[in-house]
Target: Deaminase
Amino acid sequence: MSVPPRKDWDTYFMDIAYMASTRSRCGRRQVGAVLVLGKKLLGTAYNGAPTGVEDCSEAGCMLVEEYEIVQRDSKEEMVKKQRCIRTIHAEQNLLLFTDRSDREGATVYVTDQPCWTCANMLANSGVREIVYHRGYPKDSDKVIKLMEQCGIAIRRLEDYAIPTGIQTLEPQR
Model:
């Protein structure tokens, strides 16, 4: 009997993040996150409504529209964004349910690139690296710039494949 090849650590921890995302009841984007120090798993989280509160599948999304001025080709352009504010993001839940002392120097694996708000929170969390799979174009450039300014490594797993059998929604853009 031949043993299948062992997964590398990035794949292993991203698989766990995707497994965590399956707990999400969000109909727009299911996100999972894990906190790792060295090769030790310290916590998992997913996006969803606060404990005891109806989630999006029960009460519908609570959408707000935001506008942001962005620079494109030396011109300012107004961009409209739509966000659901019913849920707490996976990264936020991860920070809420882990200790600062555990986060010092740790890595966060997250299925989706953090949004601007989560990036700001991660910047002050003590983590040293963020690894993600799916991009988040709405905030990508400014999130990467922020992480560079804070000395936090951020990288995308380009060739990662979601494990067979894990059902996730394709993110709505």
